[in-house]
Amino acid sequence: MYEYFKGIITKITAKYIVIEVGGIGYLLNVANPYAYSDKLQESLKVYVHQVVREDAETLYGFSSEEEKELFLSLISVSGIGPTSALAIIAADDNEGLVRAIDEKNITYLTKFPKIGKKTAQQMVLDLEGKVSSVAGKSEKQAAPQLDENQALEEAMEAMLALGYKAAELKKIKKFFEGTTDTAENYIKSALKMLMK
C-alpha cells in the first residue's frame, strides 16, 4: 500500500492529475484537480490511497494527511464510494460537514451528489463524533488565470466528473458568465452555491 508520492505533477485534467515518480507517471483521482494548477511541473508530495477491485486498481490523491483521513472515514460508510467521497471533499467545507454530521443535519448531507436520505443517516450513525475538521490545509497561491471561458468550462467538466448533474451546473454556469477567475475558484464557488 502507498502512503504518498513525491514527484512532479505533469498533467492536470478535469478528473485526475498525473504525478511522475522515478520515471513512472501515476494517475491520481483527486477532489479538485485544478487546485494543483499552480504546481504543474513542480515537485510535490501527494498523499495517496489505493482501491483494488476485481476490474480495476485506482489511486486517489490528497493534498494533506487530514484530507486523506477524511476520505477514508467517508468510504467506510456503507453507500459511499470513492467518487462520492471525493465530491464531498471537493466542497471544501469540512467544518460544515463535521457540524452537519454532529448535528444530524440530513438536509445538508443530501445536497452532495449520490447521497440520499438513507446514506446521509448512515453517515451520521457511523461518523458522529468521529470525524474532525480538516485543519491546517496549506494556503495555496492564486493559480495563473486561464481564458475565462476555458477556466469555467474546465470547472464545469470537473463538477460533472464529481457526479453533479448537467442541469444543476447549467444554472450555476449562468451565474458566472462575464466573470474572470481560475478553474479552482470557480469549482469552490459553485460547490458553495450548490450546498446552500
From TrEMBL:
Domain Helix-hairpin-helix DNA-binding motif class: 72-91, 107-126
Gene Ontology BP, a term: DNA recombination
A GO-annotated cellular component: Holliday junction resolvase complex
Pfam families according to UniProt: HHH_5 (PF14520), RuvA_C (PF07499), RuvA_N (PF01330)
SUPFAM superfamilies: DNA helicase RuvA subunit, C-terminal domain, Nucleic acid-binding proteins, RuvA domain 2-like
Gene3D superfamilies: 5' to 3' exonuclease, C-terminal subdomain, DNA helicase RuvA subunit, C-terminal domain, Nucleic acid-binding proteins
Subcellular location field: Cytoplasm
Domain comment as written in the entry: Has three domains with a flexible linker between the domains II and III and assumes an 'L' shape. Domain III is highly mobile and contacts RuvB.
Family to which the UniProt record says this protein belongs: Belongs to the RuvA family.
Its job: The RuvA-RuvB-RuvC complex processes Holliday junction (HJ) DNA during genetic recombination and DNA repair, while the RuvA-RuvB complex plays an important role in the rescue of blocked DNA replication forks via replication fork reversal (RFR). RuvA specifically binds to HJ cruciform DNA, conferring on it an open structure. The RuvB hexamer acts as an ATP-dependent pump, pulling dsDNA into and through the RuvAB complex. HJ branch migration allows RuvC to scan DNA until it finds its consensus sequence, where it cleaves and resolves the cruciform DNA.
Subunit note: Homotetramer. Forms an RuvA(8)-RuvB(12)-Holliday junction (HJ) complex. HJ DNA is sandwiched between 2 RuvA tetramers; dsDNA enters through RuvA and exits via RuvB. An RuvB hexamer assembles on each DNA strand where it exits the tetramer. Each RuvB hexamer is contacted by two RuvA subunits (via domain III) on 2 adjacent RuvB subunits; this complex drives branch migration. In the full resolvosome a probable DNA-RuvA(4)-RuvB(12)-RuvC(2) complex forms which resolves the HJ.
Protein name as catalogued: Holliday junction branch migration complex subunit RuvA
Organism: Streptococcus himalayensis
Gene field: ruvA
